[in-house]
Design a protein that fits this description.
alpha+beta, Peptide Deformylase, five-stranded antiparallel β-sheet
């Protein structure tokens, strides 16, 4: 699987959660591509697959995130420098909520609800943006 900007600016379609074989195969490919490129998160649209799915590996926990929703976000924002595998060697200051409560399906299509903070919240929000055709460049412009 290669990084691909072709669908990067499109809104991704939901994943059929009944097709766990597809989810697990795509997750394996995404984790492999992410790891080979020294990333901590990677969304399917970054690899030319316009589906609402991403993987992340932050703070010692690997997650497969399918059809995510943001339930709440803190009003406390933090500015940090972000990079993106779709834009190698580019780093931008981006403002994001410090904590976020999210809901998604995992690789077994089980519903997960959790509150994330710190790097995990930032990574989730960055990858979630990719599912909506938004890059860190557009977020930087909101500073």
């Amino acid at each position: 699987m290669r990084l691909n900007k072709r669908v990067l600016y499109q809104v991704a379609k939901p994943v059929d959660i009944g097709n766990t074989g597809f989810i697990k195969d795509l997750a394996k490919d995404l984790f492999s591509t992410m790891t080979k490129n020294n990333g901590i998160g990677l969304a399917a649209p970054q690899c030319g697959i316009p589906r609402q799915m991403f993987v992340m590996d932050t703070e010692g926990q690997r997650r497969v995130v399918v059809n995510p929703q943001i339930l709440t976000a803190s009003q406390d924002y933090c500015i940090m420098t972000e990079g993106c595998l779709s834009f190698p060697n580019e780093y931008l200051d981006v403002s994001r909520p410090s904590t976020v409560t999210v809901e998604y399906r995992n690789s077994d299509a089980q519903l997960v609800t959790e509150t994330l903070a710190g790097l995990s919240a930032r990574c989730f929000l960055h990858e979630f943006d990719h599912l909506n055709g938004i890059t860190m460049h557009q977020k930087k412009d909101q500073l």
